[in-house]
Amino acid sequence: MVVRDAGAEPVRIGVVGAGRIGTSHARLLAERVPPAELVAVADPRPGAAVALAGPLGARALTDPAQLLAADDVDAVVITASTEAHADLVEAAAAAGKAVFCEKPAGLSLADVDRGIAATDRAGVPFQVGFNRRFDRGFAAARAAVDAGLVGTPQLMRSVTRDPGLANPTAVPPWTVFRLTLIHDVDTLLWLNPGAEPVSVYAVADALVAPDFKDTGLLDTAVVVIRFDNGAIATAEASFSAAYGYDVRGEVFGSAGMVTTGDAARSSLVRYDAAGRHADTVRSDVELFADAYTAELAEFCAAVREGRAPAVTGHDARRALAVALACIESVRTGLPVAPATGPTPAAPR
Amino acid sequence: MVVRDAGAEPVRIGVVGAGRIGTSHARLLAERVPPAELVAVADPRPGAAVALAGPLGARALTDPAQLLAADDVDAVVITASTEAHADLVEAAAAAGKAVFCEKPAGLSLADVDRGIAATDRAGVPFQVGFNRRFDRGFAAARAAVDAGLVGTPQLMRSVTRDPGLANPTAVPPWTVFRLTLIHDVDTLLWLNPGAEPVSVYAVADALVAPDFKDTGLLDTAVVVIRFDNGAIATAEASFSAAYGYDVRGEVFGSAGMVTTGDAARSSLVRYDAAGRHADTVRSDVELFADAYTAELAEFCAAVREGRAPAVTGHDARRALAVALACIESVRTGLPVAPATGPTPAAPR
Amino acid sequence: MVVRDAGAEPVRIGVVGAGRIGTSHARLLAERVPPAELVAVADPRPGAAVALAGPLGARALTDPAQLLAADDVDAVVITASTEAHADLVEAAAAAGKAVFCEKPAGLSLADVDRGIAATDRAGVPFQVGFNRRFDRGFAAARAAVDAGLVGTPQLMRSVTRDPGLANPTAVPPWTVFRLTLIHDVDTLLWLNPGAEPVSVYAVADALVAPDFKDTGLLDTAVVVIRFDNGAIATAEASFSAAYGYDVRGEVFGSAGMVTTGDAARSSLVRYDAAGRHADTVRSDVELFADAYTAELAEFCAAVREGRAPAVTGHDARRALAVALACIESVRTGLPVAPATGPTPAAPR
Amino acid sequence: MVVRDAGAEPVRIGVVGAGRIGTSHARLLAERVPPAELVAVADPRPGAAVALAGPLGARALTDPAQLLAADDVDAVVITASTEAHADLVEAAAAAGKAVFCEKPAGLSLADVDRGIAATDRAGVPFQVGFNRRFDRGFAAARAAVDAGLVGTPQLMRSVTRDPGLANPTAVPPWTVFRLTLIHDVDTLLWLNPGAEPVSVYAVADALVAPDFKDTGLLDTAVVVIRFDNGAIATAEASFSAAYGYDVRGEVFGSAGMVTTGDAARSSLVRYDAAGRHADTVRSDVELFADAYTAELAEFCAAVREGRAPAVTGHDARRALAVALACIESVRTGLPVAPATGPTPAAPR
Asked: Which chains have 3 or more CB–CB distances shorter than 8 Å to chain A?
């Protein structure tokens, strides 16, 4: 007796941008996300798309427009440079493709609003890459909050420490807020469901690469966010952790506390004449391998089911509004009220 | 510009046995092990193969012989009942298929020797399912031993505690040694490379399900193994851990110690009026998801490269010899020398 | 052969204030600090001094002045109510007694300056109760900083969470800064040796006991301190941790990080059907028993050796200056520069 | 108003034996155990008693008999060499002194029986130095067992690893069982209340100092103990842990598990380019400072209250019986039934 069930149709995906995170996403899509079929990779740099797409059995393209025009692409994963995000989201939506865009979805609220409006108009799912929500520990933290185990959040914390600043000259201004702390901001907003941020205070400095401070490079920052339910949150980031990639969260409330995030690479603990030791993870790709897989699986599920994904453009807008308030606070030295109001209606 | 690279040919795999571990392996092969293509699942129970194969896009068969005869099957993964292992290994090898067999590879040394001889004759890779070697923590433990960070092993420990004994009537005699502690035995042999076990002492009892002791069911056991390099190892197993699935290892030597194994489900730690809490894992499939994936990837790599896999029939034979010595020790109440000598030459 | 060595003369101590912390200090002095001899306890409340002093073999007094006038008292430990600290320090110094004063050493810089001036004039040691410096974990953190293992501090954190707010009506305004966060401030200043705080931003709210907000009770607060060496520190406090008494510290720098503080009551970890559990400490007296003992031993040593203790009035002044800047920041909603300059010369 | 309460009369103690543990006990008695008054220290080695007693304000004696004859000594703490224990216990009891004796209370059951008989006859308290029972973690383990949180014990473990073998020539034969593992044996018996050991199997080797094997020095050992309630326990010891002093316990039962013992020196965790690190404790005196203090406090309380202490000569006899069975098992290579029956009636 032989039975064959073809299974559901795959979600055919094109990846735009073959950089570090694009490489990781393309590989996970091809190898770890069963509903996904990696169809094409586009990158203007000669060789980059070929090197990534080839071994994965996908087409390599140099022009993103070609990818967006392809009939055999149902959905695009945008991992291009940050400045290009908003235009690519708009173009992909216009082409009728479902859109996954790495954070931030744009550098200004207007940019993000364009993406929201375009994907709304096209009626396609629009997911933004806040991968931490898919990490087992962070997801369990949110579940504990939802279950009332923490009570009303009162003190919150989110930390991001990158293992190193590879090339200070390549870092655009305000990256620490727009690309790094935007993760922490989203995490804090998400772990305090139903609450609105009402005030933001931020300080930032160039402590890792002080020589580049003149170029606008700030590599270390601390943020305080007050919420309308009373919760006070801190977020902090550094571009240079000697010991690896360190992401942690904490929610303290009226009924208890949850903490999440562990830099240990495995369960191995080693003891010798110098004491007790454990290896630590060195990259987001290592720390968040399962979380990246889960967020891409969620994207495929949303595409298949024709529904809004778990992380939307509105979430991206909200986090960006807080990140922009941080920048304003650093500029003025004063607390700032973030513009997290509802997304303006898209003109039709 | 469009470039396509077909990639290497997939390893076409048939799974024999659609039980708990067969289900896990089939899914991992289909969804998480890129070089693998799950082609067929065979299980004599009506419906079991269909239910597993269908959603994964594979053929469902009721007769393993059909699967072994299939031209589009390069390799088989044997997850049938333990008694059938040896015959299936032999038959699969005779059919020219590469063989992955769940542990134990047989219930007697003669059984395992048959499998070794058959796969040797056929010149096909033969891997046995000692998955713990592929766990990140255990692999790091072995790496530390190899790097000399532990020195010469002196005291070793391996623990397996299952979360519950589902059906005491279905447990064959000596399961605690042949199916459970054989994992610990392999781990201990593997973490003490180059050393030979010279003496085994074991005790076992029916503490979880005492009513079934008459049927030969032993659910709790402790083993002491002495090695020719002086190391003294203990292994222990229980079929009923209230808190979940607990596998740990420890190697203490002249230069230090490594410990591995952590029952925590994620990095989340929760605090409330009753103290500090963490959830624990509840199944091997949860604890060893990555390890199972890695062992199946290793099998595919060995098949592609036409080489012996990282865990061989000889490893299976050695671990079984120690497990059988444990059984003899329980029977006699005395220490026993295990028959871990070289595999007898296969008659041609 | 019999030999007797009388040992060094004991330091004869009187404790002023038989409240919670006075009780703890008196007992530790009598039972755990060998050089100390508890001679007297003074407390105006009928019965309080008797109940404490009696079982410890000390005199009970109702008038602190009597204690200060006693010839057999070498040194006083001031654990009276906060408002009385400054006057008591001054009076004790005037009486020629060495002075240990619980934090804060006064409610205004002028108060603390009076104490510094008086003890300077009298030439007696003056120690302030920043006990965390004597905790094994915090002391090891400072040692790691001193050894260069952290590099230049860049991001710092100190947390204090009390297990519960016994009586909201009894909490004077700004207690969260003047009595609680002053510990964290001292810790942060001490863990960043040689650096000066240049800016303070603080927010505070009544989240635990909102009904008492009108009375000025703030029970939850977050502080951001910027230092002249670039380090950015956060401190946070809550008056109501459901899980116990939680004090932690973290110093992240160019070479690595140290964290300290663990709420676990012992090394016991318990596992059951609900997962993994550990009991947590419930009071400062439990968490800091050894630290309190060590700080009192340091005081006795300083008295015996006629030298300045490890924590001085100048440290108290500096921490208070930052705490007062926090209050000013909450009042104005703006960052504030703390007045941590050198103590003004005392008029003679 | 002045009130003085003289407090209870102190327990006047003489310490016999100014070696490592005698030094520790004498200091704790003088400095950390309030009811104790250290009156005298006796040690035949010239200078040893003086060096210890002098700074503590006690008499130094060279003849233990002098100490036992002293009218101002209520109780003796015996920390002499092991061979002298039994005679000293007998002599002290005959002199009417309460007796605390370091483990083992004797090298043979007859020795221990002599001590039990003598202290019974004299009607004086007799405590033996199983300090681990007073460790916070181990005590919490026993409390959890008593509270039913573990259920019926099924698998147990106790580990002792010493940081180093200072002088192999000075180690009497079977020390690993009689002085080291006797701690683990007592712990296991105590953590399985009401159960009797029925079978002991032990292996031992000279792995740390193999050159001394001929002298009878065994430095590494593993023990398996079966109890009449089904529990199977392992104990292991090594005389040379590179990383410090490591004592751990584990009780796994039908309802859950407890683990205890942590080698970390403080709550400090350090991170650098090589990963995560913690310092480990290096001696029993460091690890068990509080436990030693608590056991001596218990002794004083028993003396004051004229009652049997928490750890008695009968406990010492039971643990020794198991340790002697271990030695017999190593000699014969076979499992041995320990002679833990009731202490024979003392002849009058």
From this structure: B, C, D
- Judging contacts by C-beta atoms under 8 Å, the chain C residues touching residue A254 are 207-208, 240, 242
Nearest neighbour of B277 by CB, restricted to C241, C273, C275: C275
Dist CA D27 CA D6 (whole Å): 23
Q: Does C269 touch chain B (CB under 8 A)?
A: no
Interface of B with A in 166-225 (CB under 8 A): none
Q: Which residue of C has its CA nearest to A206?
A: C230
pTM of the predicted model over 0.80: yes
List, in sequence order, the alpha helices (H) in chain D: 20-31, 48-53, 64-69, 85-94, 109-122, 136-146, 175, 182-190, 284-287, 289-305, 313-332
Pairwise CB contact (< 8 Å): C234 & A232? no
* Contact flag A280-D279 (C-beta cutoff 8 Å): no
Token couple for D96: 């009417």
pLDDT tens by residue, B79-125: 999 999 999 999 999 999 999 999 999 999 999 999 999 999 999 99
Q: Which fold is adopted by the domain A132-287+312-332?
A: Dihydrodipicolinate Reductase; domain 2 (3.30.360)
Q: What is the pLDDT of residues B237-285, one digit of tens each?
A: 999 999 999 999 999 999 999 999 998 999 999 999 999 999 999 999 9
Over residues D241-295, the pLDDT tens digits come to: 999 999 999 999 999 999 999 989 999 999 999 999 999 999 999 999 999 999 9
Chain A nearest C-alpha distance from C127 (Å): 33
Structure tokens at C73: 């008292």
Contact flag D144-C59 (C-beta cutoff 8 Å): no
**Residue range A11-131, CATH number:** 3.40.50.720
Domain boundaries, given as residue ranges, for chain C: 11-130, 132-283+311-332
Structure tokens at D140: 């919490």
At the second CATH level, the architecture of B11-130 is: 3-Layer(aba) Sandwich (3.40)
Tokens of D238: 């090594």
For residue D297, the chain C residues in CB contact (below 8 A) are none
CATH number of this structure's domain B132-283+313-332, picked from the four choices 3.40.50.2300, 3.40.190.10, 3.20.20.140, 3.30.360.10: 3.30.360.10
Sign of the CA dihedral D81, D86, D91, D93?
A: positive
SS3 D138: helix
Tokens 């994904």, located at residue = A309
Q: Is D147 in contact with D190 (CB distance < 8 Å)?
A: no
DSSP of A75-101, one letter per residue? EEEE-S-GGGHHHHHHHHHHTT-EEEE
Distances (CA, A) of D1 to A89, C12, C53, C65: 84, 19, 13, 12
- At the fourth CATH level, the homologous superfamily of domain C132-283+311-332 is Dihydrodipicolinate Reductase; domain 2 (3.30.360.10)
Put simply, whether A243 touches D (Cβ < 8 Å) is yes
Do A270 and B255 form a contact (C-beta atoms < 8 A)? no
Question: Would you call B348 an interface residue with chain C, using a CB distance cutoff of 8 Å?
Answer: no
How far is Cα B11 from Cα B22, in angstroms, rounded to an integer? 17
- Nearest Cα residue in chain A from C252: A241
For residues C193-220, give the mean pLDDT: 94
A126 touches chain C (CB under 8 A): no
Residue A133 has a CB neighbour count (10 Å cut-off) of: 22
Q: pLDDT tier at B345 (50, 70, 90 boundaries)?
A: low
Q: Find chains touching chain D: ≥3 CB pairs under 8 Å.
A: A, B, C
> Which residues of chain B have a CB within 8 Å of the CB of D241?
252, 257
Kindly report the three-state secondary structure assignment for every residue of B172-226: CCCHHHHHHHHHHHHHHHHCCCCCCEEEEEEEEECCCCHHHHHHCCCCEEEEEEE
- Complex prediction ipTM: 0.95
Question: Which residue, B13, B61, B52, is CA-closest to B304?
Answer: B13
